[in-house]
């Protein structure tokens, strides 16, 4: 084999070096163009459904189910029915012109009531009954706050809500559309505010068509409740099939939640959380994609944080055939009209004097 001259070897080396430099330069150019394209690309927004999401993935902990992570964009109010997300923060829904209500730190019981903007009659009835302690007006054992969103095409109603908030100081307004499919955003906004502002010992979530036996509730939590931590209690819903019909108000896509059934959860009629559970749920919610079933979503947060559901019969889904002495047991009653709130309060008070010496229930069942 003949040997190459030193000069020939130099020529070959320079050609190889030149070719390599060209390849590297080409690669760098293509990489730069690709990165610029990614940075300038806009997320695809889906329409026709409140709070529609596009998901990425996040693992909560080794061995746990993969969570879908939503990304919160800086959106105008009109965009809030078609969001695209990767990590969200309920505090971003607070950009409104209405001051947040005051709340005592370490409050024994904070009651969050989901309410629609037009339900003034329901809020009025609650304010005049169980929102306060009629037997002891100086009692500060509980505080009732209404959670309300915005309307797009009714500025007069928004103004009316602002005035109502100023007068009563009990409305937490959020910068989201007040729609059924945004109910999860409403509740998570309330929980985030509660954790940041009040840090209550217990939090009760309920609706504006419910009666809350508030005086007995706070007394029970203080004197009889044996589960002061890891408490997530309510009327249990189990084996509920996930709705996949895009036309349904309860529609949840497989991309958002893959299992065919929801994990067991407490009915949104009323459920109570201890302070540590509230804190854990607020922290976890930032990484779990919200879907249009508020109570099922809360149950999913409980599942991710290893909080078992405490089954309690003291949360009634219906307002039928309850007798006076049942109010020594019932904590929350659903399907109550504004006029029936007065009846519930009267029954709660009279049950202590007219039930033949019967005492309040001292456990969850």
From TrEMBL:
Its main location: Golgi. Its EC number is 2.4.1.-. It is a single-pass type II membrane protein. Pfam families: Galactosyl_T. The chain crosses the membrane at residues 12-39. One of its GO terms (cellular component) is Golgi membrane. It comes from the Eukaryota. GO terms for molecular function: N-acetyl-beta-D-glucosaminide beta-(1,3)-galactosyltransferase activity. Belongs to the glycosyltransferase 31 family. This is Hexosyltransferase. It comes from Acanthaster planci (Crown-of-thorns starfish).
């Amino acid at each position: 084999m003949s040997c190459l001259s030193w000069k020939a070897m130099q020529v070959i080396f320079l050609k190889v070096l030149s070719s390599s430099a060209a390849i590297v330069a080409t690669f760098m150019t293509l990489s730069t163009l690709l990165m610029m394209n990614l940075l300038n690309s806009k997320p695809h927004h889906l329409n026709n459904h409140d709070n529609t999401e596009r998901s990425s993935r996040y693992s909560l902990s080794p061995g746990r189910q993969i969570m879908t992570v939503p990304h919160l964009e800086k959106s105008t109010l009109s965009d809030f029915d078609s969001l695209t997300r990767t990590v969200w923060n309920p505090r971003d829904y607070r950009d409104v012109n209405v001051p947040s209500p005051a709340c005592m730190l370490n409050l024994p019981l904070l009651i969050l009531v989901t309410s629609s903007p037009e339900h003034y009659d329901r809020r009025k009835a609650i304010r005049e009954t169980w929102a306060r302690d009629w037997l002891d007006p100086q009692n500060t054992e509980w505080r009732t706050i209404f959670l309300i969103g915005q309307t797009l095409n009714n500025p007069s109603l928004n103004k009316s809500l602002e005035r109502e908030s100023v007068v009563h100081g009990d409305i937490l307004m959020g910068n989201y559309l007040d729609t059924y499919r945004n109910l999860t955003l409403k509740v998570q906004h309330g929980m985030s505010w509660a954790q940041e502002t009040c840090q209550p010992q217990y939090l009760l979530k309920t609706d504006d068509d419910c009666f809350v036996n508030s005086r007995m509730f706070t007394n029970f939590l203080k004197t009889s409740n044996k589960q002061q931590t890891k408490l997530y209690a309510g009327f249990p819903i189990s084996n509920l099939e996930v709705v996949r019909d895009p036309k349904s108000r309860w529609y949840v896509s497989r991309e958002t939640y893959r299992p065919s059934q929801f994990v067991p959860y407490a009915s949104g009629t009323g459920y109570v959380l201890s302070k540590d559970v509230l804190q854990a749920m607020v922290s976890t919610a930032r990484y779990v994609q919200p879907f249009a079933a508020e109570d099922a979503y809360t149950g999913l947060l409980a599942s991710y944080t290893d909080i078992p559901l405490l089954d309690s019969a003291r949360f009634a889904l219906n307002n039928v055939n309850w007798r006076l002495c049942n109010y020594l047991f019932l904590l929350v009653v659903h399907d109550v009209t504004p006029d029936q709130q007065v009846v519930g309060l009267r029954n709660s008070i009279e049950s202590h004097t007219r039930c033949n010496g019967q005492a309040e229930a001292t456990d969850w069942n």
